[in-house]
């Protein structure tokens, strides 16, 4: 396609206004901004939400928020004009750089969250839920540095090619399209899937191991001191870290997980209260008081069970929405580059691009809808409560 004059561009714009782009784009921008601002404010203002995992959520929210502020307005403007670019080519290059960088940062943050969750579940002895460690800082910093590195060739002149059509804002180098797709999606996605699979498998092993070892402990206590000692030995055996990675994950935490952990949040405090009350009642009935450590151990086991059951429910949602939003985008763009004979029109490209941007609006819902404390803070912020 040859270069076009400004008058040609204006004439084409006059007949190709796309009001649907405004109807979809403006609400999408507002939803992304509102959702991710609420996430950031919740973590910054609520002390109980200032946990290690939630800083990854904040990093993800910042990436999505910047995407809504710096990229989407110009993209919606171009879509409203029928896909025609009327601004300076340098602004286009800056837009492409920010688009690639922030989309990559959003995906890599999801991958970093999966790494953090994997460490928390499978290697819990190296994980601290309540303090922001150097390892987590390195993960977040690496996410942004890698994202900038992937997108930097565009701002350094990769798009400035001879015969460039100034009326279209896109990535001009097909090799860069493949390269950025591999770095942004086709490498992080399998890593995330494998980590979630290993985590899910570890949780299932832990759940099966817990059932097999706690069945005897659920029976009523007898008056026999020998029965009490046998129960203690059973608990010690269960607490040994050699059972399985899932078992290690469950028992390493020295107490109930904070509500600010959105992926492995306990269903409620009642998960541990009912067994605690039952155990306490058994102790009282048998005249055995003062065994608080055993009671606390049982309560912790119950709370861990609630957290991991919640994780098993959330993980398919996280992975499924991620794949549904981003897979079409990258598959279509890479196919368009590698398959010259394939007929991929601008409508399909526009649809998959919008779908990828929708993920930035869904992320706050995925990582907060399953957390009662996040919902309560959202309600307080929206209702201006103190």
TrEMBL record:
GO terms for molecular function: dopamine neurotransmitter receptor activity, coupled via Gi/Go; G protein-coupled receptor activity. InterPro entries: Dopamine_D4_rcpt, Dopamine_rcpt, GPCR_Rhodpsn, GPCR_Rhodpsn_7TM. GO terms for biological process: adenylate cyclase-inhibiting dopamine receptor signaling pathway; adrenergic receptor signaling pathway; negative regulation of cytosolic calcium ion concentration; negative regulation of synaptic transmission, glutamatergic; phospholipase C-activating dopamine receptor signaling pathway; regulation of dopamine secretion; regulation of potassium ion transport. It holds the Pfam family 7tm_1. Belongs to the G-protein coupled receptor 1 family. Its main location: membrane. The chain crosses the membrane at residues 20-44, 56-76, 96-115, 136-156, 176-200, 314-334. Keywords: Cell membrane, Disulfide bond, G-protein coupled receptor, Membrane, Receptor, Transducer, Transmembrane, Transmembrane helix. This is G-protein coupled receptors family 1 profile domain-containing protein. It comes from Megalops atlanticus (Tarpon). It is a multi-pass membrane protein. Residues 247-307 are annotated as: Disordered. GO terms for cellular component: plasma membrane; synapse. Residues 247-260 have a biased composition (Low complexity). It is found in: Cell membrane. Residues 35-367 form the G-protein coupled receptors family 1 profile domain.
